[in-house]
Protein backbone atom coordinates (compact mmCIF):
# COMPACT_ATOMS: atom_id res chain seq x y z
CA UNK A 1 0.00 0.00 0.00
CA UNK A 2 1.33 3.43 -0.93
CA UNK A 3 0.67 5.73 2.00
CA UNK A 4 1.31 9.48 2.11
CA UNK A 5 0.94 12.18 4.72
CA UNK A 6 -0.33 15.75 4.39
CA UNK A 7 0.97 17.45 7.54
CA UNK A 8 -0.14 20.83 8.85
CA UNK A 9 -1.74 22.70 11.69
CA UNK A 10 -4.97 23.26 9.73
CA UNK A 11 -6.05 26.17 11.95
CA UNK A 12 -8.53 26.03 10.27
CA UNK A 13 -8.55 23.76 7.22
CA UNK A 14 -9.39 25.77 4.07
CA UNK A 15 -10.18 25.18 0.41
CA UNK A 16 -6.50 25.26 -0.64
CA UNK A 17 -5.69 22.47 1.83
CA UNK A 18 -8.71 20.45 0.68
CA UNK A 19 -7.73 20.69 -2.96
CA UNK A 20 -4.18 19.45 -2.33
CA UNK A 21 -5.39 16.64 -0.05
CA UNK A 22 -7.91 15.50 -2.68
CA UNK A 23 -5.17 15.45 -5.33
CA UNK A 24 -2.91 13.47 -2.99
CA UNK A 25 -5.73 10.96 -2.51
CA UNK A 26 -5.72 10.45 -6.27
CA UNK A 27 -2.03 9.57 -6.22
CA UNK A 28 -1.79 7.33 -3.14
CA UNK A 29 -3.79 4.42 -1.69
CA UNK A 30 -4.11 6.14 1.66
CA UNK A 31 -3.51 9.72 2.77
CA UNK A 32 -3.03 10.56 6.43
CA UNK A 33 -3.92 14.14 7.27
CA UNK A 34 -1.63 14.65 10.27
CA UNK A 35 -2.71 17.59 12.42
CA UNK A 36 0.27 19.07 14.20
CA UNK A 37 0.58 20.96 17.45
CA UNK A 38 3.53 23.19 18.19
CA UNK A 39 3.33 24.14 21.87
CA UNK A 40 5.13 27.40 21.21
CA UNK A 41 2.33 28.45 18.86
CA UNK A 42 -1.04 29.94 19.77
CA UNK A 43 -3.90 28.36 17.86
CA UNK A 44 -7.34 29.75 17.12
CA UNK A 45 -8.89 26.26 17.34
CA UNK A 46 -8.02 23.39 19.67
CA UNK A 47 -6.46 20.21 18.31
CA UNK A 48 -9.82 18.43 18.65
CA UNK A 49 -11.62 21.18 16.76
CA UNK A 50 -8.99 21.23 14.01
CA UNK A 51 -9.29 17.47 13.63
CA UNK A 52 -13.11 17.60 13.70
CA UNK A 53 -13.16 20.24 10.97
CA UNK A 54 -10.78 18.18 8.83
CA UNK A 55 -12.83 15.00 9.36
CA UNK A 56 -16.13 16.75 8.60
CA UNK A 57 -14.87 18.31 5.39
CA UNK A 58 -13.01 15.23 4.13
CA UNK A 59 -15.69 12.68 5.03
CA UNK A 60 -16.88 12.27 1.44
CA UNK A 61 -13.41 11.35 0.12
CA UNK A 62 -12.15 7.76 0.11
CA UNK A 63 -8.78 6.72 1.52
CA UNK A 64 -8.21 9.65 3.85
CA UNK A 65 -7.72 9.47 7.58
CA UNK A 66 -7.23 12.35 10.00
CA UNK A 67 -4.92 11.90 12.97
CA UNK A 68 -2.98 14.01 15.46
CA UNK A 69 0.70 14.14 14.52
CA UNK A 70 1.98 14.43 18.08
CA UNK A 71 5.02 16.52 18.82
CA UNK A 72 7.84 14.34 17.47
CA UNK A 73 9.73 14.50 14.20
CA UNK A 74 7.72 14.14 11.00
CA UNK A 75 10.44 11.79 9.67
CA UNK A 76 9.90 9.49 12.67
CA UNK A 77 6.13 9.68 12.32
CA UNK A 78 6.49 8.56 8.70
CA UNK A 79 8.82 5.73 9.60
CA UNK A 80 6.48 4.39 12.31
CA UNK A 81 3.40 4.64 10.13
CA UNK A 82 4.93 3.12 7.00
CA UNK A 83 4.46 6.39 5.13
CA UNK A 84 6.62 6.72 2.02
CA UNK A 85 5.76 10.27 0.93
CA UNK A 86 5.03 13.69 2.40
CA UNK A 87 2.74 15.74 0.16
CA UNK A 88 3.04 19.52 0.28
CA UNK A 89 1.20 22.20 -1.65
CA UNK A 90 3.40 24.98 -3.04
CA UNK A 91 1.95 28.47 -3.38
CA UNK A 92 5.10 30.38 -4.23
CA UNK A 93 8.85 30.28 -4.56
CA UNK A 94 9.12 31.25 -0.90
CA UNK A 95 7.11 28.12 0.01
CA UNK A 96 9.64 26.16 -2.05
CA UNK A 97 12.64 27.83 -0.39
CA UNK A 98 11.16 26.99 3.01
CA UNK A 99 10.22 23.42 2.13
CA UNK A 100 13.30 22.28 0.19
CA UNK A 101 15.72 21.89 3.14
CA UNK A 102 13.02 20.13 5.17
CA UNK A 103 12.34 17.74 2.30
CA UNK A 104 16.04 16.93 1.94
CA UNK A 105 16.45 16.52 5.70
CA UNK A 106 13.38 14.26 6.00
CA UNK A 107 14.71 12.07 3.19
CA UNK A 108 18.10 11.86 4.86
CA UNK A 109 16.58 11.06 8.27
CA UNK A 110 14.12 8.38 7.23
CA UNK A 111 14.16 7.89 3.48
CA UNK A 112 10.72 9.51 3.11
CA UNK A 113 10.25 11.42 -0.15
CA UNK A 114 8.46 14.77 -0.42
CA UNK A 115 6.06 15.32 -3.30
CA UNK A 116 5.29 18.95 -4.16
CA UNK A 117 1.98 19.78 -5.78
CA UNK A 118 1.58 23.25 -7.27
CA UNK A 119 -1.34 25.03 -5.60
CA UNK A 120 -4.40 25.54 -7.75
CA UNK A 121 -4.43 29.11 -9.12
CA UNK A 122 -7.72 29.96 -7.34
CA UNK A 123 -6.16 29.11 -3.98
CA UNK A 124 -2.66 30.57 -4.30
CA UNK A 125 -3.52 33.42 -1.96
CA UNK A 126 -5.15 31.31 0.75
CA UNK A 127 -3.60 30.78 4.15
CA UNK A 128 -5.19 29.97 7.50
CA UNK A 129 -3.52 33.07 8.96
CA UNK A 130 -5.03 35.43 6.39
CA UNK A 131 -8.46 33.83 6.71
CA UNK A 132 -8.36 34.29 10.50
CA UNK A 133 -7.29 37.92 10.16
CA UNK A 134 -10.09 38.69 7.72
CA UNK A 135 -12.73 36.98 9.86
CA UNK A 136 -11.61 38.69 13.08
CA UNK A 137 -12.03 42.03 11.33
CA UNK A 138 -15.55 41.11 10.19
CA UNK A 139 -14.71 40.18 6.58
CA UNK A 140 -16.49 37.49 4.58
CA UNK A 141 -14.42 34.31 4.29
CA UNK A 142 -17.16 32.10 2.88
CA UNK A 143 -15.35 31.72 -0.46
CA UNK A 144 -12.26 30.33 1.25
CA UNK A 145 -13.44 27.68 3.70
CA UNK A 146 -15.94 24.85 3.63
CA UNK A 147 -19.37 25.45 5.16
CA UNK A 148 -18.77 23.60 8.43
CA UNK A 149 -15.58 25.58 9.04
CA UNK A 150 -17.40 28.82 8.28
CA UNK A 151 -20.04 27.90 10.88
CA UNK A 152 -17.37 27.39 13.52
CA UNK A 153 -15.58 30.62 12.62
CA UNK A 154 -18.84 32.56 12.85
CA UNK A 155 -19.90 30.86 16.07
CA UNK A 156 -16.53 31.68 17.62
CA UNK A 157 -16.82 28.27 19.27
CA UNK A 158 -13.28 28.16 20.52
CA UNK A 159 -13.08 31.49 22.31
CA UNK A 160 -9.77 33.19 21.74
CA UNK A 161 -6.57 31.28 21.28
CA UNK A 162 -6.81 27.60 22.20
CA UNK A 163 -3.61 26.17 23.64
CA UNK A 164 -3.53 22.88 21.74
P1 LIG B 1 1.50 25.08 8.95
O1 LIG B 1 1.79 23.69 9.46
O2 LIG B 1 2.68 25.81 8.44
O3 LIG B 1 0.64 25.88 9.87
P2 LIG B 1 -0.82 24.87 7.25
O4 LIG B 1 -1.65 24.07 8.19
O5 LIG B 1 -1.25 26.26 7.01
O6 LIG B 1 0.71 24.81 7.63
O7 LIG B 1 -0.74 24.15 5.84
C1 LIG B 1 -0.34 22.82 5.75
C2 LIG B 1 0.13 22.53 4.36
O8 LIG B 1 -0.92 22.75 3.43
C3 LIG B 1 1.26 23.44 3.88
O9 LIG B 1 2.51 22.93 4.26
C4 LIG B 1 1.09 23.40 2.40
O10 LIG B 1 1.68 22.20 1.91
C5 LIG B 1 -0.40 23.25 2.22
N1 LIG B 1 -1.10 24.51 1.89
C6 LIG B 1 -1.36 25.55 2.69
N2 LIG B 1 -2.05 26.51 2.04
C7 LIG B 1 -2.22 26.05 0.79
C8 LIG B 1 -2.86 26.58 -0.40
N3 LIG B 1 -3.45 27.79 -0.41
N4 LIG B 1 -2.84 25.83 -1.51
C9 LIG B 1 -2.22 24.62 -1.51
N5 LIG B 1 -1.62 24.06 -0.45
C10 LIG B 1 -1.62 24.77 0.69
TrEMBL record:
Binding site for substrate: 9, 41, 74, 88
Keyword annotations from UniProtKB, A to Z: ATP-binding, Coenzyme A biosynthesis, Cytoplasm, Magnesium, Nucleotide-binding, Nucleotidyltransferase, Transferase
Annotated catalysed reactions: (R)-4'-phosphopantetheine + ATP + H(+) = 3'-dephospho-CoA + diphosphate
Main location: cytoplasm
Nucleotide-binding listed as a keyword: yes
EC number(s) reported in the record: 2.7.7.3
Highest taxon of source: Bacteria
Site label Transition state stabilizer, positions: 17
Record pathway: Cofactor biosynthesis; coenzyme A biosynthesis; CoA from (R)-pantothenate: step 4/5
Class of the enzyme per the UniProt entry, highest EC level: transferase
Cofactors required: Mg(2+)
Magnesium recorded as keyword: yes
Entry binding sites for ATP: 9-10, 17, 89-91, 99, 123-129
GO CC terms in record: cytoplasm
Molecular functions per Gene Ontology: ATP binding; pantetheine-phosphate adenylyltransferase activity
Domain Cytidyltransferase-like: 5-133
GO biological process assignments: coenzyme A biosynthetic process
Localization (cell): Cytoplasm
Job description of the protein: Reversibly transfers an adenylyl group from ATP to 4'-phosphopantetheine, yielding dephospho-CoA (dPCoA) and pyrophosphate.
Description of how the protein assembles with itself and partners: Homohexamer.
NCBIfam families with a match to the protein in the record: coaD_prev_kdtB (TIGR01510), cyt_tran_rel (TIGR00125)
Family according to the record: Belongs to the bacterial CoaD family.
Name recorded for this polypeptide: Phosphopantetheine adenylyltransferase
Organism, as annotated: Arthrobacter terricola
Chain's gene name: coaD
